[in-house]
């Protein structure tokens, strides 16, 4: 048993998890990133003290159900796999606070995510999401949601009813219009760059914006009673992209 209760087997080109790892029953952190895994042994269920499990950058087409038996998990990394859905059994992970499911094949955000009542951070970028389920508003502990690189054609309406959100990232989508976000009292940062929008989202004082017109929100100019849209040549150049990297919670 490692003294620090951590095993890191990242980048080992593993096709199978070595079974002896499952005998370390006091293990708290297990990193299996950047391998060739597509399944996990049922013996993994013995690791009931596991709090962090990293399965990103592997070949999983489905989340092994044994992961859903690890009820002490707080952080689960599933990014850069081939997941098209998540099992209903994920709801058993009621201690989960951070979920990374970016860079998969998700066309819909699995509604089971909305049952993770303690979730604080959700990374769901680089999928094929077009909408978000209305049930998401029930996640009252959620503070950060990353949706960059999806197929959103409108700002997800459910986010307008989540006043506890602190960070909203909808960078690199297909949003053409942004509603006002000034009524969200918890908001600290909104990233909306690389959208074909004609306006910046209005925010409360002190909220940082990253995107076109982040310093001001231009309104259509009126001449002789006619509304003339701002042309591309008249728009300010977009600021340098300084999108912060998501930070995992420990």
TrEMBL record:
This protein's UniProt keywords: Leucine-rich repeat, Repeat
Domain of life: Eukaryota
GO MF term list: actin binding; alpha-actinin binding
InterPro entries per the UniProt record, alphabetical: Leu-rich_rpt, Leu-rich_rpt_typical-subtyp, LRR_dom_sf, LRR_domain-containing
One Gene Ontology cellular component annotation held by this UniProt entry: cytoskeleton
SUPFAM superfamilies found in the cross-reference section: L domain-like (SSF52058)
UniProt entry tagged with the keyword Repeat: yes
Biased composition (Basic and acidic residues): 212-222, 232-250
PROSITE patterns: LRR
Pfam families in alphabetical order: LRR_1 (PF00560)
Record-given protein name: Leucine rich repeat containing 10
């Amino acid at each position: 048993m490692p003294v620090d209760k951590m095993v890191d087997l990242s980048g080992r080109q593993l096709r199978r998890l070595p079974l002896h790892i499952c005998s370390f029953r006091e293990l708290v952190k297990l990193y299996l990133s950047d391998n060739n895994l597509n399944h996990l042994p049922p013996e993994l269920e013995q690791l009931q003290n596991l709090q962090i499990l990293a399965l990103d950058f592997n070949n999983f087409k489905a989340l092994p159900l044994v992961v859903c038996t690890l009820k002490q998990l707080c952080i689960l990394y599933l990014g850069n796999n081939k997941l098209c859905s998540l099992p209903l059994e994920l709801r058993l992970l009621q201690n989960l606070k951070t979920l990374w499911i970016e860079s998969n094949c998700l066309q819909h955000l699995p509604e089971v995510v909305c049952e993770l009542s303690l979730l604080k951070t959700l990374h769901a970028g680089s999928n094929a999401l077009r909408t978000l389920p209305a049930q998401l508003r029930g996640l009252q502990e959620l503070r950060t949601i990353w949706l960059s690189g999806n197929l959103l054609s409108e700002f997800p309406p459910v986010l307008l009813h989540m006043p506890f959100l602190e960070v909203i990232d909808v960078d690199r989508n297909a949003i053409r219009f942004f509603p006002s976000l000034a009524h969200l009292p918890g908001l600290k940062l909104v990233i909306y760059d690389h959208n074909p929008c004609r306006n910046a989202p209005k925010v409360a004082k002190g909220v940082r914006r990253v995107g076109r017109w982040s310093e001001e929100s231009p309104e259509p100019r009126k001449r002789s009673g006619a509304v003339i849209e701002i042309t591309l040549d008249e728009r300010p150049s977009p600021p340098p992209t300084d999108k912060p990297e998501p930070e995992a919670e420990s």
